[in-house]
Please model this.
Amino acid sequence: MGTMVKVGMADLNVCLSPDAITTLGLGSCVGIVLYDPGKKISGMVHVMLPDSAKIRNNENLAKFADTGIDELLNRILKLGANRGALIAKIAGGAQMFAFNSNNEMLQVGTRNVEAVKKKLASLHIPIKAEDTGLNYGRTIEFYPENGNLIVKSVGKPPKTL
Amino acid sequence: MSEVKLDQMNNMQFDVLREIGNIGAGNATTALSQMLSAKIDMKVPKIELLEFKELGELIGGAENIVVGILLTLQDDIDGMMMFLLEKRAAKNVVGLLMGGFGGGADSEEFSEMELSALQEIGNIIAGAYLSSLSALTNMKISSSVPYMAIDMAGAILSVPAIEFGKISDKALLIETEFGDIGEEVNGYFILIPTLESYGQILTSLGL
Model:
């Protein structure tokens, strides 16, 4: 058993088998795993916002879906991942508070998921599994050894994607 | 108007914000205390300037299960107000308030009635916090209805974090912990004005 690499909010990291990589308490944020199953090279990014172009203060690349995925891709390619073999698994993007208003600032979860999907499609990286939306938080763990993404939520049995 | 730059705040500004936390949370704690007929104390407010990766760890770790009540603020101050209770503490609070009619403190889940009581508590407490802030600064503050979620602290705190993420790589918040002696009803008030509103608050107080 390897160690567990932690990824914080607006943060990213890479992980090689036998280690595993995790991010805790995803709410409206989205966790994205990029994975080369052949070489067992993986990386995870925890993005908070959909689009860096709409925001002036965008120094932290890992904060946004577009720049975060680009940066993560660079990092795992540097480790020797095969660009054509990459797959993605994503989780998060919940709406934590049950608002009935259409307050734009509270529907960021949905917009995050859309932005992540659009970005991955533009990079031609297929999404092999997802657990997104709804109204609860998620902790995710990814194991590059077997490609399993474990999703844990409060009061629900863990899911393996 | 005072301009607030997160990385260049001076001690005077920190002191004033701490005092706002003190007055706001002081009133809120008194309101809670009266409602529950229990003695509840607050700690010295903390002004935290945090990177997002640290934010999730704020309330006993990102996976700690908490009840979060959130109100959005508008008018002269924009931002959010949050009232967070540990899950066990939330059970105790409704127990005290409803005198055992809530649906059993032992059960893991909250009954409809308990949920609605918690929401109302959040409303009253946040109202006490905000009205004292409003009186102090002479600013008009209106709040939304309270929204509630019971989940991992990290997931709940991501909601205000995202708002701050739009303008900064760090979040500035006024956090006050409260609790009774036996730690039966401990929790947190967190006031998270937007950066612009911080400037307006400081200006209104002559800084």
